[in-house]
Amino acid sequence: MSQEKVQHSLLGKSLHWFFVLLFVYGIFKQIENKEQLNDLELLRSEMFFAVFFLLFIVFRFIYMKRRYKTALPLDTSKIQFIAAKIVHISMYFALAGIAISGLGIGLLFWMGYKDGLLIEFVIWVHELLFSTILWLISIHILAAIYHRTQNDYVWSSMVPFLKEKVK
Ligand code: HEM
Ligand code: HEM
């Protein structure tokens, strides 16, 4: 099998794993109900976090667009290349959408539209995007595990543990 052992750059790996931590942190400190946003300090810190999260995604997207080269083996089927690309790009859109809809909720709340159809709709979009990202991340992790079972070095190109032994 023709094998090109791509290693993602240190910056590429750092952005990937720092983002995983940021996302987990975002989930842990999530808002339980919108009434919590009456606390102005909390509203401000949520907005600040969402702006940072969004800027981070945009920076990472631009960096990966310029520098990213998948570690998928050259003999991978075209359909698998396309599927991987769709999942990666959809993850960026869903994550950016979570931050943008979160900012939308915060802005509406700050402007006094605390109840009503509009804010409920934006919350619905926010939660829908969150469910979508959970599906995408699950598919992504399952695909990474699948590649580990194939010993094709895709796993080792990004994951720092349980690496394949280089032949
Ligand atoms: C990028 C940053 C953010 C992340 C990762 C995030 C994450 C989440 C998660 C995981 C949920 C629960 C979804 C579910 O159970 O289906 C949620 C709900 C919610 N978030 Fe965010 N969020 C972010 C930004 C914001 C911002 C900036 C605001 C507003 C200032 C906000 C307001 C809300 C509200 C009102 C809910 C619904 C709570 C309810 O069930 O009533 N979020 N968010
Ligand atoms: C919040 C969770 C995660 C997100 C949002 C995420 C997102 C991404 C994205 C967008 C890429 C494409 C490269 C890039 O743009 O940086 C990627 C690559 C990769 N990720 Fe993740 N990832 C997550 C968690 C994980 C986990 C837990 C694993 C493994 C246990 C993993 C394994 C990989 C591997 C092996 C690659 C390289 C794929 C290739 O070279 O084609 N990821 N990830």
Describe the structure.
The protein has four helices and no strands. The protein is mainly α. It has one domain (10-149). Helix 1 (10-28) packs antiparallel against helix 2 (40-67), helix 2 (40-67) runs antiparallel to helix 3 and helix 3 packs antiparallel against helix 4 (117-149). 14% of the residues are buried. The mean pLDDT is 94.
Largest sheet: none
Radius of gyration: 19 Å
The shape is elongated
Sequence stretches where pLDDT stays below 50 over 5 or more residues: none
Order of helices and strands: HHHH
Number of strands: 0
Q: Number of helix segments?
A: 4
Q: How many structural domains does the protein architecture include? A: 1
* Helix/strand structural class: mainly alpha
Bound molecules: protoporphyrin IX containing FE
Beta-strand proportion: under 5%
Helix content: 55-70%
What is the typical, i.e. mean, pLDDT? 94
Distance N terminus to C terminus? 13 Å
